[in-house]
Specification:
mainly alpha; 2 domains; two-stranded antiparallel ribbon; 7 helices; elongated; binds heme C
């Protein structure tokens, strides 16, 4: 480079090393300015216009796909608490559940779940238990003498799972409506824990009937 300043020492020296006032090499400047331009483009692409998917979005998408795949495998098996929880993570299933709810349940439980003829499904009180499997069983088998029909024949287990997932997703939203009925969730939970902790006593008056 025939820069006039080439190899002109700046006039200080540390441990025998001198500094020259040389021009920065073009390749170096190119990477610096290039990365600045790139960062502006990156910012606009991912954050301002949201065209690209950030890592968080990518992760959420992967999780959704994994949940869907796992759900496909679970569907054929017996219902479990895990499979119901899984269902609440798959938007297509939740949407199906919300739609079923509006068609079959809203007339008695309110469009938002606040209750009308049937109890409020969004508060913290339950007549027949708050656990996903208890809710599933209530919907499947109904409480026929109290005006809640059994849905297992009309909807079948898959659609009952969907509508239960919807109920789980609106739990705790406390929609204004019917006053709480039944016992608080904490009581149901304590009862379940006690039942799980109880030793399967062989003697002593027979085991408590389950749920
Ligand atoms: C004809 C009215 C009616 C319809 C339709 C109806 N329910 Fe109910 N539901 C009731 C009544 C009444 C009860 C309260 C039963 C009782 O007193 O034990 C109830 C109770 C429940 C409970 C138990 C709540 C608790 O506190 O433990 C759940 C869960 C439930 N219904 C879900 C559903 C779902 C899901 C649908 C739609 C697939 C549905 N219901 C449709 C009337 C209805």
């Amino acid at each position: 480079m025939n820069d006039a300043r080439a190899d002109v020492p700046l006039g200080h020296e540390y441990d025998g090393i001198q500094e020259y006032d040389n021009r920065l090499p073009n390749w170096w400047l190119f990477t610096l300015y290039g990365s600045i331009v790139f960062s502006v483009g990156y910012w606009l692409f991912y954050h301002t216009f949201g065209i690209g998917h950030t890592q968080d979005e990518g992760l959420a998408r992967e999780e959704r796909i994994a949940a869907e795949a796992q759900l496909q495998r679970e569907m054929g098996k017996e219902v479990t608490e895990e499979s119901l929880l899984l269902m609440t993570k798959v938007p297509t299933q939740l949407e199906a559940g919300a739609k079923l709810y509006q068609q079959k349940c809203a007339q008695c439980h309110g469009a938002q779940g606040g209750g009308e003829i049937g109890p409020n499904l969004t508060d913290d009180h339950w007549l027949h238990g708050n656990a996903p499997l208890q809710i599933y069983s209530t919907v499947m088998n109904g409480v026929v003498d109290k005006g809640m029909q059994a849905w297992k024949d009309q909807l079948g287990p898959v659609r009952v799972r969907q509508v239960v997932a919807h109920l789980m997703s609106i739990q705790g939203t406390n929609v204004a409506g019917k006053a709480p009925q039944g016992r608080p969730s904490a009581e149901w939970e304590a009862e379940r824990r006690a039942r799980e902790a109880a030793p399967a006593a062989p003697a002593g008056g027979g085991g408590a009937p389950g749920g």
